[in-house]
Amino acid sequence: MTVEVPVIGRALSPWRRREDAPHQPSAAPDAEGVLEIDAEYRAGLADLASFDRVWVIFLFDRSEGWKAKVKPPRGGPKRGVFATRAPHRPSRIGLTSVALTGVDIDAGLVNVKGIDLLDETPILDLKPYIRGVDAWPDASDGWLAPYLATAPALKKPRRPDG
Amino acid sequence: MTVEVPVIGRALSPWRRREDAPHQPSAAPDAEGVLEIDAEYRAGLADLASFDRVWVIFLFDRSEGWKAKVKPPRGGPKRGVFATRAPHRPSRIGLTSVALTGVDIDAGLVNVKGIDLLDETPILDLKPYIRGVDAWPDASDGWLAPYLATAPALKKPRRPDG
Fold first, then answer.
1. Could you give phi then psi for residue B101, rounded to 5 degrees?
2. Domain count across chain B
3. Which end of chain A has fewer CB atoms within 10 angstroms, the N or the C?
4. Residue A50 is part of which domain span?
């Protein structure tokens, strides 16, 4: 069984190639991007600017097929794909939260910071980040814990024209 | 443009009717549920049990069409749908984090607590909650701020057989 989900827009981002993109937004907190929302969906952007973080639900459109177990970028054995944020998932759905820096409803432009999406990534949904339900600072790090001590080096965003 | 997304399983939950379900998991922190994952996807559940929270990406399958502006359950004027977590979204995709209490990989059963999904809700993806990228306890509450002072009354889950 499958469901059909409309693409509501796309990301404009400094990350052009998979090998350049950070594995998570925390690896490039200053990378600026724009979420360009299609005309028919723009009225739904009202009130979004009142939040300072937003969830982006997107499609890993350059992911080629899913794997039950994936090799984590930080090393160690393969892990179940649902215990990772890897692109190789059955749904190809990705989830990331970014800082909101501006919304132009008429133009359908949402300016964000800390973007880890590849340029031209299809966007499926935007939702406000609501700390009362989304922030769990005491959640365990699971199998990741021993790997977090050795954080990956920060990557510098390259502008699409740079 | 649309994309096709496979359903990987479904939620078994005490919430049978829309009018009974909490609007967010924080309104029913003790509601227990099971995420039943289809056989072909079960191997992907490996290592998930090491985390204590999990993101559930699901389909609001009982949502009837999307609206650019929606009336929030807490009151006040209509808000842009992307500034809410309402079901009436173009994608019909929902996002909720739940506490993980057990995983049976062979049976494809993920036991969770704090579930706000309706019984039989289709599941599209599971991801580990990773506090380093997901927890932003200082994020603003946006337009919701004045409404959060008056939290909704807690609802008690009813067992499907009760």
1. -115, -10
2. 1
3. C
4. 9-130
User: Model pTM?
Assistant: 0.90
Which ipTM value was assigned to this complex?
0.90
- The answer to whether residue A72 sits within a structural domain is yes
Residues of chain B found within 8 Å of residue A68, distances taken between Cβ atoms: 41, 43-44, 46
CATH assignment at residue A63: 2.40.30.70
Specify if A3 maps to a domain. no
DSSP state, residue B97: E
Amino acid at B38: D
Closest CA to A18 of A87, A81, A90: A87
More confident residue, A25 or B121: B121
The three-state (H, E, C) secondary structure of A40-64, written as one string: HHHHHHCCHHHCCEEEEEEECCCCC
If residue B111 lies in a helix (H) or strand (E), which one and from where to where? strand B109-113
Which of A8, A91, A93, A116 best probes binding to B when mutated, by most B CB atoms within 10 angstroms? Answer: A91
C-alpha to C-alpha distance for A140 and B52, rounded to whole angstroms: 6
User: Which of B9-18, B66-75, B94-103, B146-155 has the weakest average pLDDT?
Assistant: B146-155
User: Can you read off the two tokens belonging to residue A84?
Assistant: 């990772």
Gap from B11 CA to chain A (nearest CA, Å) = 15
Q: How far apart are CA B26 and CA B41, in angstroms?
A: 29
Question: Of the ranges A18-32, A53-67, A112-126, B117-131, which one carries the lowest mean pLDDT score?
Answer: A18-32
- Among chain A residues, the shortest Cα distance to B4 is held by A4
Q: Is A127 exposed, middle or buried (0-12, 13-18, 19+ CB in 10 A)?
A: buried
pLDDT recorded at residue A27: 63
DSSP A33: E
Domain membership flag for residue B153: no
Name the closest residue on chain A to residue B68, using Cα atoms.
Answer: A44
